[in-house]
Amino acid sequence: MEEKTLKREFSENKVKDSYAKVAWFYDFWALLTESKAARKVIELASIKDGESILEVAVGTGQLLKELLKRNPNGTNTGTELSPGMLSRAKKRVSKLGLDNYTLETGNAYRLPFEDNSFDLLVNNFMLDLLPEEDFEKVLSEFYRVLKPSGRLVTSTMAFGQRWYNKFWHWVAKRFPGLLTGCRPVSIVSYLEKVGFSVEEVQQLSQNTFPAEVIRAMKPDEKYSFVVRH
Ligand SMILES: C[S@@+](CC[C@H](N)C(=O)[O-])C[C@H]1O[C@@H](n2cnc3c(N)ncnc32)[C@H](O)[C@@H]1O
Description:
Strand order of the largest sheet: 3-2-1-4-5-7-6
Structural class: alpha/beta
Shape: globular
Number of domains: 1
CATH topology: Rossmann fold
Bound molecules: S-adenosylmethionine
Number of strands: 7
Largest sheet: 7 strands, mixed
Number of helices: 8
């Protein structure tokens, strides 16, 4: 049976307010429920040192720190909507003593970057906060800023395959504020709609919390072709 995605509305101020409130304990929450997916994101990203990498919605910078460690000779850029989360990310990565990164506030709906700029775009647990009507818009922005043959690695809260995963759907429905609006989503069809080629989809569960990690590629125009019926 197809599961319905719960409705959400996007408001910049609401996101900023919610994450200002949870920033202080976000790392603990992520350790219990999202760290397994974050490790899978790093694995599927297959980073080659020297690449240009963008992370959208860096949060408190846990994943960004791992990206920087693996790409010391490349260029690394991070954006984040919530100043409360971003200041924690800045503090965390400044301890690495690297200078090959820029970290600024920014909105995934309108990324301030040229077309075809990045080899890799990483986005962890953000799309599951947005209205389903906006998935295509935001994924098109990801597509636009990636170079041809560039990779997108993204994770979201998922519906899950086990009975106990359903608990989180119930929480998201009954108490949306507890999860700052996060709810199970399925984005594969949206990725394909905007032109990505979906290469790998992995379902995970950590302490019953269900997630999906996806690697997709922006096809190289030289080699892609359209089949017309
Ligand atoms: C669940 S947290 C994940 C943080 C981080 N990616 C991680 O995995 O630890 C979601 C993050 O997305 C950010 N966010 C939400 N909407 C955004 C948008 N439109 N543009 C950029 N960041 C956004 C929030 O401020 C928050 O920091």
